[in-house]
Amino acid sequence: MKILACDLDSTLIHSHKKFRDGDICVELYDGREQNFISPRALDLLKQIAAQILFVPITTRSIEQYQRIFWAEGFCPRYAVVANGAYLLDGDKSEKFLRDVVEPHADELEALREKFSSAEEFDICRIVDESFLYLRCRDDLDAEKISRNLQTLTNLPVQHTGKKIYFFPPKLNKGEALRGLIKKFSPTKIFAAGDSEIDLPMLELANVAFAPKTLRGKFVTCSESPAFAEEFLSQIKFSLANQSEY
Fold first, then answer.
1. Residue closest to 84 by CA, chosen among 131, 134, 35
2. Hey, is 195 helix, strand or coil?
3. Which of 28, 47, 91, 118 is the most exposed place for a label (fewest CB within 10 A)?
4. What are the pLDDT digits (tens) for 144-158?
5. Are residues 86 and 188 in the same domain?
6. Are residues 131 and 209 in the same domain?
């Protein structure tokens, strides 16, 4: 068995801000089209998923992941959500890395209380009882703020765009992928991701794809939305020709 472990946002799907004519909507939010996938990327993904196990690994909450509608007749059976805390199997969810959260639950709650009324953030919440999520106001530098916040805690603090995350130390996509390896014993692992949050997963894979902007020894591609088409094309070619990178 081979596995494709794949981030979602800005890797496989892209926001309305990067919409291109013909893109297929895969998520609605408050009745508005929110995220998309290109027809070519969806077609490639369906072909690949017919040959190997495709598992999204995302920081999205269970609720956020379940907003995604893939295509008629196609939906991945498994997904890892909340950065590894839960494994979804069809309509069922099970604890995956939740045990690594418990020792840090009190600190997460204390940080939530500390920042819940801070003017810098317009969202402050604990996601699926697993990690703390903050969203900076648009006029602020999230990267600078995240560096300052790191001095206040021993929890890893990471950011993407305006989003800042406080993760329990072992709640990461690499540990999530290790859990999938233990569960499925794959002979080869493909992975794709676009941010530093994806690095532990990418570094564990046999073949990993990332945009040129992400540091590391990966197969580099263009940024989203072309990213999905590029890495899926290369995986399909590899599967068709049994090629090795």
1. 131
2. coil
3. 91
4. 999 999 999 999 999
5. yes
6. no
Nearest one of 62, 8, 70, 19 to 42, comparing CA atoms: 70
| Mean pLDDT score, 2-31 | 96
Judge whether residue 178 has pLDDT over 80: yes
- Residues 138 and 119: their CA atoms lie apart, in Å, by 12
Nearest-10 Cα torsion for 8, 24, 230, 233: 100
Q: Which of 8, 21, 18, 37 is nearest to 229 (CA)?
A: 37
Stated length of the chain: 245
Q: HSE (CB half, 13 Å, CA atoms) of 180?
A: 36
Residue 178 and residue 69 in one domain: yes
What one-character-per-residue DSSP string does 76-93 give? -SEEEEGGGTEEEETTEE
Nearest to 84 by CA among 65, 102, 98: 98
Query: Alpha helix (H) ranges present in the chain?
Result: 39-49, 62-66, 105-115, 142-150, 173-184, 199-204, 226-241
One domain, residues 134 and 191: no
* Bridge-based pairing state of the strands 92-95 and 86-89: antiparallel
Helix orientation angle between 39-49 and 226-241, rounded to the nearest 10 degrees: 30
Q: How far is CA 179 from the centre of its chain?
A: 16
